[in-house]
Design a protein that fits this description.
The protein is an alpha+beta fold. Helix content is about 40%, strand content about 20%. The structure holds heme C (HEC) and copper (II) ion.
C-alpha cells in the first residue's frame, strides 16, 4: 500500500510541476506565429497517430492474453493458426503504410516550406519586407546584428510582427542551439557553417503573451547552458522602423551625476571597454566583439539574461559573475571591484539607453 502511495504522489508531483509548463512566453503548446502553428500541428498529428497505434496494439494484446489464458482454454488447446493468412497480412502491411503516408506528406511539405529561405539571399532585398537578423551564440550570451541597419544588440532580440523574420545563425565558440519555444525552432548554431531559417510573430497572439518571450539555448554547451537565455520583444512594423531609427541615430547619453562619471572612468580603467561596446553601431570585427553590447543595458529587464534588473543584482554580477553563471567568460578578466566602484559602475550602466 505504502509503495503505491509513493508512485501516486510522484505522479501528483509531476502533474503539478508539468502544469507550470504552459506559460505563454515559453510554451511550444501555445504557438504565436505561423511557423510555430505548423510545428505544433506536426507534433499533434504524430502524437495522435502514435497514441492510436499504442491503443489498438494494447487492446489486441490484452484481448489475446485474456481470451487464450491457459487456465481457461486448458493445457493442450492450440488456437487456430493464422500464419500466412492473406487478409491479415495485407491488413497489417497496409495500415502502417497508410499511417506513414499521413505523416510523411505534411512533414515533407512543411519541411520544404519552412526551409525556404531564398528570399533572404536575393540581391535586391527590401529590408522592410524581408528582414535579416544575424544571430551569434557565445558562451553564455547572444548577439543580434541587423546588417541592413548597422545595428548590433545583445541579449534582447527585437522583431517586427506579421512578417517573416529571417535568421542567419552561427556560434563563436562551441555549438549552441537557437530556440524560441513559442515561436519556433530549434536550430543549431555551429562554428563551421551558417544555418538559416525564418520565424513569424503574430501581432495579436504575441500581445497576449506579454511584453517579452523567452529564448533559450537548446544544445548542452557548458556549465551555464541552462542559464543561456535571451528575451524577444515584438513591435509592430512601424514601431520597429522607429526603433531602428533610434538605434542608428544613437547619441551617447551624457553621464549625468558625478557618480556616473566616476563609473564611466572606471569602465575604461578596469578593462571593461576591451570587451564591451557601449554603442549600438559597433564597427569592430566580429571576433573582437567578445561580450554583450551594453548600449541598451539601462533598458533591459534582466542582468546577464537571467537575473531581474536591479541595483543589487547588477552589483553582485559585477563583483562576482561566477556565482551567477559558472564558467562564464567575464570572470577574472578585470581587477576585483570594491563596493564603491560597483556603485559607480552601476550608476553609469543604468544610464545606457537609446531614448
Ligand atoms: C574579457 C571580456 C570582458 C571584460 C574585460 C568584461 N566583461 Fe562584462 N561580460 C563579458 C561577457 C562574455 C559577458 C556575458 C556573460 C554571460 O552572460 O555569460 C559579460 C556580461 C556583462 C554584463 C551583463 C550584460 C547583460 O547584457 O546583461 C555586464 C553589465 C558587464 N558584463 C559589465 C562589465 C563591466 C562593468 C566590466 C568591467 C569592470 C566588464 N563587464 C568586463 C565579458 C567581459
Ligand atoms: Cu547552450
Amino acid at each position: 500500500m505504502i509503495r503505491k502511495w509513493r508512485v501516486y504522489s510522484l505522479f501528483l508531483l509531476l502533474t503539478l510541476v508539468l502544469a507550470g509548463c504552459g506559460e505563454p512566453y515559453l510554451s511550444t503548446l501555445r504557438p504565436v506565429g505561423e511557423v510555430a502553428d505548423k510545428q505544433f500541428f506536426l507534433t499533434v498529428l504524430s502524437t495522435l497517430i502514435m497514441v492510436l497505434v499504442v491503443i489498438v496494439v494494447s487492446i489486441i494484446f490484452f484481448y489475446v492474453i485474456i481470451k487464450f489464458k491457459r487456465s481457461k482454454v486448458g493445457e493442450d488447446t492450440i488456437p487456430k493458426q493464422v500464419e500466412g493468412n492473406r487478409n491479415l497480412e495485407i491488413t497489417w502491411t497496409a495500415i502502417p503504410i497508410l499511417l506513414l503516408i499521413i505523416l510523411v506528406v505534411p512533414v515533407v511539405a512543411y519541411t520544404l516550406e519552412l526551409g525556404d529561405t531564398s528570399a533572404m539571399d536575393k540581391k535586391k532585398r527590401d529590408p522592410e519586407k524581408t528582414l535579416v537578423v544575424n544571430v551569434r551564440a557565445s558562451l553564455y550570451w547572444w548577439e543580434f546584428e541587423y546588417p541592413d541597419y548597422g545595428i548590433v544588440t545583445s541579449q534582447e532580440l527585437i522583431v517586427p510582427t506579421d512578417q517573416k523574420v529571417y535568421f542567419k545563425l552561427k556560434a563563436s565558440d562551441v555549438k549552441h542551439s537557437f530556440w524560441i519555444p513559442s515561436a519556433g525552432g530549434k536550430i543549431d548554431t555551429n562554428t563551421d557553417n551558417e544555418n538559416k531559417f525564418y520565424l513569424t510573430f503574430d501581432s495579436k497572439r504575441t500581445k497576449d503573451a506579454g511584453e517579452y518571450f523567452y529564448g533559450k539555448c537548446a544544445e548542452l554547451c557548458g556549465p551555464s547552458h541552462a542559464l543561456m537565455d535571451f528575451k524577444v520583444k515584438t513591435l509592430s512594423q512601424d514601431e520597429f522602423l522607429g526603433w531602428t531609427k533610434k538605434m542608428t541615430d544613437y547619441k551617447k547619453p551624457a553621464s549625468t551625476s558625478d557618480l556616473a562619471l566616476e563609473g564611466e572612468k572606471l569602465f575604461k580603467e578596469k578593462n571593461c571597454l576591451s570587451c564591451h561596446a557601449v554603442e549600438p553601431g559597433d564597427e569592430r570585427p566580429e571576433a573582437a566583439r567578445t561580450a554583450p553590447n551594453l548600449a541598451t543595458f539601462g533598458e533591459r529587464t534582466k542582468v546577464a539574461g537571467i537575473k531581474d534588473m536591479n541595483k543589487e543584482n547588477v552589483k553582485a554580477w559585477l563583483k562576482d559573475p561566477e556565482s551567477f553563471k559558472p564558467g562564464n567568460k567575464m570572470t577574472g578578466t578585470y581587477p576585483k571591484l570594491n563596493d564603491s566602484e560597483a556603485d559607480a559602475l552601476y550608476e553609469y550602466l543604468k544610464g545606457l539607453k537609446i531614448q
